[in-house]
Structures are given as structure tokens and as C-alpha cells.
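S.,

Sequence below, as promised.
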Amino acid sequence: MAEHAWMTEIRALVGKEYGRVYAWDAVNAPMVRQWCEIMGVNVPTDASGQVLAPPAMLQVWCMEGPVANNYPPGSTSENPYEVLKLIEAQGYPSVVAVNSELSFVRDVRAGEKLYYTTRLDSIGEEKTTGLGTGFFVTLVMDYFSQQEPGQSDEAVGQLLFRVFKFRAAQAAAPTPTPAPVTASASAPAPRRPLPGISDDTRFFWDGVRQGQLLIQRCKACASLRHPPGPVCPTCHSFEWDTLQASGRGTVYSFVVMHYPEVAPFEHPNLIALIELEEGTRLVAQLLGIAPDAVQIGQAVQVEFNTFDGDLVLAQFRPVATAAQA
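The prediction came back faster than expected:
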């Protein structure tokens, strides 16, 4: 489609660099420990025992906290998202994040003070997607560690952040007097998508079809792992067998999918990260409970349900609800 005339001024911003956003606190052991505890990983250290921040924490250090846009003194007052406001003013009010890619130069150690700068990397051509029509906007944040006066600050990582700024697609207006539709002419009911099955995952889906929740287990160190994979992440052994899990567990975390509504799923669609009593976790749909009633740590039990005649899925239901069903 032809480019809008008003995009000329907006595209002139591509390549613009925005000033520093500082971290409120230096990299510190308490925050590292709490983050690792929540994620279920060990606190990393170097050979001398000094605490290292997990690479995935990089974005955390320079976040503003619970109060929006509350950045430390000295941080830039420029809005690196100004391009989104300009596009929005032209009738594209919606936004959805589509990419977040972190890359790392080196480990960050306790005591370092970080900041980042932002660059507007690109604005894509106008595109129409299932969500609507709009523009993919890519920003790149470069993270640095402050050094002593007279020394150059060190690059420690980078975040690529891409969003789709769009005008939502309009649903087709209903036909005032729809023509009768015979059963033979009716569109087929949507089917649930089939899982991708490989040599690594086939055992899991074979077990589900037999009403068994099978978890991959390393023969060398007995570590459990899910999703399945060819190599043990703990000891790197290629030898494995399976353990039949009890199917009992607790809600470790969950999300509620409201939009987009994808047939044939019911919405809101409740997806939970279940921690099995054997110790590993898996993602599954949570049934029989309202989204606002779910609690972290809530006891759940697996059940195996068949869809579309031959697709069997492992889903979970709160124990109290399961006992009543």
C-alpha cells in the first residue's frame, strides 16, 4: 500500500539516540538471590565466589519500579517511545509486543552500576495482520556498566524490543436477514491444533493417549526434565528413561488469555504452569475454576480429555473441583 504522507516526518526519527536511563541500585546480592529463588535456579558466582547476576536479569536493573516513569536523577527526560505516540495520533491506538531479544557481552557482578541508552532502530512498512493494520517498530537498548572517571564505560548487553502499533481490525457487520444454512453446507467446527511430535516428545504423547503422565528422566543422574530433550541439562548424558508421574501438583504460575480469541478455545483461557509433586513443571490448561479464583500453590490433579475424536490432552483441575466431578 502507498505510504502515508505523515509517515515522512515520523520516519525521520529512525536512528535517533535517546539519553541514559540509570539504575536506582547497584547490582546487588539480595536482588540476585530473590530473583534466583523465584526462578528456581542457583545463585551464580565466579571462581573467587563473587556473586554474578544471571544474564536474564539484565533488564531488571534499570526498571523504574512500581511507579511508572520514576527514574533516578540524571536519567534522560526524553521519551524513547515518542514514535508510538506519533503513530497513535494518526489513528493507530493499539499496541502489542512481538519480540524481546536479549544478548549479553559479559556477566554483571555485584557492585556494578548500570544504565542503558535507546535507539529507534526501524519502522516497518504498513502491514495488515489478523490483529489489524499498523507498523512494526523496533527499539534497541544498549546496557553499560559505569566505570571510574577517565575510563570508558563497558558495554554489557543489549535488548531488542519490537512492538506492533496498529488499528484493530473491525469485525464484519452481521447480515440483517441471514439466509438459512443447511447442515450439509455448514462450515466444519474448528479443531484443536495438533501438537508437534518429534522423536524426543513421542513418548509423552503416547503416554497421554494411554492415560499416563510420563516425565523424562536421566539414567545417569536421575534428573527429571520437561519439555523433553535429547540431552540431560544437568550432566549432559544422552541416556534416559521415563517416570510415570502421579499427576498431582500445584499451580506455580498462570496467565489468562483474553485476546485474541482463537477458536475452538473458550475465553478467557486459563493456562497454568504446574509444579508436579515429583519436582518438575509443565504447562497445561486449567479447568473448572474462574480465573479470579486461582491461587499460587493451589493443589491440582491431572485429567486426560479427548478432543475431535482422537486428540488426547493432559489438563489439570483443582483438587476440590476434581473430587466433586
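The mean pLDDT is 89.

Coffee later?
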